[in-house]
Design a protein that fits this description.
The protein is mainly alpha-helical. The chain has a domain at about 1-10 and about 20-130. The protein contains 19 helices and no strands. The chain is elongated. The termini are far apart. The model is unreliable at about 1-20 and about 115-130 (pLDDT under 50). Keywords: Sigma factor, Transcription, Transcription regulation. This is RNA polymerase subunit sigma-24.
């Protein structure tokens, strides 16, 4: 599990005389603080949130612990258990804050059980790992609460759970930093004003809320896998963040089949990353990709995660399981010509029945075109022409252009590729579509 607490060796032995440490040692201590805090901040915020019941305040208290470490570690040395030091410091400040509040009695009664568990006696005493995991799971469900917009959920999750800075999130999504900062502030305020409980839901509510959590992780991955806008097709850092979050969630919820299925889907999709762009960053279509460049380790991990999903599934496969099965069909084919398109078309049919969507139907049309022919697929695509959700979706005319080109209707195909290029916001995709339009002349 990637979020395990690291073991850090003290930079130097404590100075008995209390004399100031060397400049080089102080710099090393500061770097250690920053590195450890980045790794541990999600768990610190999660643990503190259980006490104060407010993710905004919890983040501020975690930052207070960071400041305390920056003041003390360069002077006294990095503690043997730095993660526990930061967590303990933040939790103690949280307890002090609760005790200072005007409504002391009511709040203390509310978190009394937590205080007895989380108030440690020794700064270097590690907290219960299972307890931390429970808190982290609560934080994930809180940050992805449906009361927030999709954009707010993504930003808040990357900030609190992913440990990204506001500027990093802004760069990843090509958004102004001020816009992202406001989005995060509003999200935390909304959670507080709406009284969203810091808890893991149960029963039918958990199933509904889990869908929101998985959606956020999938949206983050997709933005990295095929960037909506900008000059680059891929944003690898976002894919890595999404994969890490999915793997953590699978560790925390081992009996949820759709969680393992999402991990499988992301592992299998990410396995193709190196082959999806050429030397200059240009997109490489699936049929032209060198499968020798596909990451076999990620493929094995993807199949293993899909096996875990199937092992705990008690009913029909969910949408992520079906998408993972589709990705597995591609991963099993050693050459493009070996792809089992009939099975992929069948799986897309099941996915369309399970989660109806114009985008799913468009993907099914592509599979049908390979399994049955472009004419049959064109009928499906033409039925989607009036879908409001696809009105400005550049892949609709792109798919239609490809089908028309395969049918020899090059003039119509060129017009579709040109329209797709005009709708594409990603520069690399636009260049590819313009090239395909020129090839139709």
């Amino acid at each position: 599990m990637e979020e395990q607490q690291p073991t850090v060796t003290p930079v130097t032995q404590p100075v008995a005389s209390g004399a100031a440490r060397g400049a080089g040692e102080a710099v090393e201590a500061v770097e250690a603080v920053e590195t450890i805090f980045r790794i541990e901040s999600p768990r610190i915020i999660a643990g503190v949130s259980r006490i104060v019941r407010d993710v905004g305040i919890a983040e501020e208290l975690a930052q207070d612990a960071l400041v305390a470490a920056l003041e003390q570690w360069p002077r006294d040395g990095v503690p043997d258990n730095p993660g526990a030091w930061l967590t303990t410091t933040a939790k103690r400040r949280a307890i002090d804050l609760v005790r200072r509040r005007e409504q002391y009695a009511r709040k203390l009664a509310e978190v009394g059980r937590d205080l007895s568990v989380t108030a440690p006696h020794h700064l270097d005493e590690p907290s219960d790992p299972d307890d931390i995991d429970d808190d982290l799971l609560r934080l994930v469900f809180t940050a992805c609460h449906p009361v927030l917009s999709a954009e707010a959920r993504i930003a808040l999750t990357l900030r609190l759970v992913g440990g990204l800075t506001t500027s990093e999130i802004a760069r990843a999504f090509l958004a102004p930093e001020a816009t992202v900062a406001q989005r995060i502030v509003r999200a935390k305020r909304t959670l507080a004003t709406k009284g969203v409980p810091f808890e893991v839901p149960y029963g039918s509510d958990r199933e509904a809320r889990l869908g929101s959590v998985l959606e956020v992780i999938y949206l983050v991955f997709n933005e990295g896998y095929a960037a909506t806008a900008g000059d680059d097709l891929l944003r690898p850092a976002l894919c890595e963040d999404a994969l890490r979050l999915a793997r953590v969630l699978a560790e925390l919820m081992p009996k949820e089949p759709e969680v393992h299925a999402l991990v499988s889907l992301l592992e299998l999709q990410e396995s193709r990353a190196a082959a999806r762009t050429g030397p200059s960053g240009e997109p490489v279509l699936l049929k032209d990709q060198s499968r020798r460049r596909w990451n076999r380790l990620l493929i094995r991990r993807g199949f293993a995660a899909l096996g875990r999903a199937n092992a705990v599934t008690t009913g029909p496969p969910g949408p992520y399981a079906l998408q993972a099965a589709i990705a597995a069909c591609h991963a099993q084919a050693y050459a493009y010509e070996d792809t089992d398109w009939e099975r992929i078309a069948t799986l897309y049919g099941l996915l369309a029945a399970r989660s109806p969507s114009p985008v799913v139907e468009l993907n099914r049309a592509v599979a049908v075109s390979m399994a049955e022919g472009p004419a049959q697929a064109l009928e499906i695509v033409d039925r989607l022409a009036g879908e409001p959700a696809l009105r400005d979706y550049h892949l609709l005319p792109s798919v239609r252009g490809d089908l028309l080109a395969r049918l020899g209707r090059t003039t119509e195909a060129r017009a579709e590729f040109e329209r797709a290029a005009s709708l594409a916001r990603n520069e690399r995709e636009r260049e590819l579509l313009e090239t395909r339009a020129r090839e139709c002349r």
